[in-house]
Amino acid sequence: MAITLPANVTATPANTRNLLGAEDLSRAEIEWLLERGRFYKPQRNEPPKKLDTLRGRSIVNLFFEPSTRTRTSFEIAAKRLGADTIGIQTQGSSLSKGESLVDTLNTLAAMSPDAIVMRHAASGAPHFLSRYLSTPMINAGDGRHEHPTQALLDAFTILEVKDTLEGLRVAIIGDISHSRVARSNVHLLAKFGAAIVLCGPATMVSGNMAGIAPGVTLTYDMNEAVADADVIMMLRVQLERQNVEIFPKSEYFQFYGLTLEHLKPAKPDAIVLHPGPINRGRELSNEVADSQRSMILNQVENGVAIRMAVLEWVCGG
Ligand code: CP
Predict the structure, then answer these.
(1) Domain total for the chain?
(2) Strands 216-219 and 195-199, how do they pair?
(3) FRET pair for 21, CA 20 to 30 Å: which of 33, 120, 161, 191?
(4) Residue 179 covered by a domain
(5) Which residues pair with 284 in a beta bridge?
(6) 63 and 134 fall within a common domain
(7) What is the pLDDT along the chain (317 residues), one digit of tens a residue?
(8) DSSP of 8-34
């Protein structure tokens, strides 16, 4: 459907800094963001840093899809940098009265926030809108396309344990086709020389995913994917993006759910990641989710530090 832009909408000034996808980030930019994340992460037994970096700035958190981790961590990150935050969800906004997305974004931009963090079900929505807004835009997840801050916090978490991404064997397992987390991680990890294996049922792994970055292979066999893996990244089955059930729920766990038995062919020090929310008994067993190898809560913790770095980067703090 064509979207008519209001006459007063102009192209974005070239100096507006957005974070739309891991694909667009250079290796140097990623390294800078990871380094700033390290600066912002409290050391053991230290209280969280409360800073004035973005004092007087306003951040709008605009979420058109449910979120616990991303929305809360952006909110906490902004507050720790001294910024004011405004949270908007579909229910309670004028979108529910029929206002278009473009009009909503122009309305918010007219109030001069310093950045808009947006999650939307349509792939490319933040990319499209950012072409016409002078307000910096951060993609907090667009459809099945990208979730760049998730990939940054995943890399940050891996680096805390493994020191390097170069040469790591990373198995990404589950509903690859519908996963913005998988896509962003592939783009980011490939820039650092990781060997990435994508695995899931044939109905959830499209063949063209192997072509999006160098060093990516596909398999439908979980044992093959896990063999010698340094990192195993499990994905949520995205039922909200599937019109029909594309793999029987009762058999998914048997073939693609991670158990302690499935972990055996991995490297002895392999770690397990999952972006959350996790579905225990479908994507992974309780024993794996709650094991020493599980980095799931480390990922959540690191999300705050990484999002502080991203807000600083985008707002030019
Ligand atoms: N990983 C992630 O995006 O989680 P939320 O949907 O809870 O934000």
Answers:
(1) 2
(2) parallel
(3) 161
(4) yes
(5) 258, 280
(6) yes
(7) 333 444 444 445 556 899 999 999 999 999 999 999 999 999 988 999 899 999 999 999 999 999 999 999 999 999 999 999 999 987 778 877 888 899 999 999 999 999 999 999 999 999 999 988 999 999 999 999 999 999 999 999 999 999 999 999 999 999 999 999 999 999 999 999 999 999 999 988 987 777 888 889 999 999 999 999 999 999 998 666 666 666 667 789 999 999 999 999 999 999 999 999 999 999 999 999 999 999 999 999 999 999 999 999 999 85
(8) T--PPPTT---B--GGG--HHHHHHHH
Q: In terms of domains, do 264 and 278 share one?
A: yes
Q: What CATH number corresponds to the domain at position 176?
A: 3.40.50.1370
What backbone torsions phi and psi does residue 142 show, to the nearest 5 degrees?
A: -125, 110
Q: Whose CA is nearest to atom 5 of ligand 1?
A: 67
Domain co-membership, 142 together with 244: no
User: Is residue 277 in contact with ligand 1, taking CB distance under 6 Å?
Assistant: yes
How far apart are the CA of 293 and the centre of ligand 1, in A? 21
Ligand 1 mutation pick, 62, 63, 65, 67, max ligand atoms within 8 A of CB: 67
Q: Which residue, by CA, sits nearest to atom 4 of ligand 1?
A: 69
Among 62, 70, 310, say which to mutate for ligand 1: greatest number of ligand atoms within 8 Å of CB. Answer: 70
Does the Cβ of 68 fall within 6 Å of ligand 1? yes
Q: Does residue 158 contact residue 192 with C-beta atoms inside 8 Å?
A: no
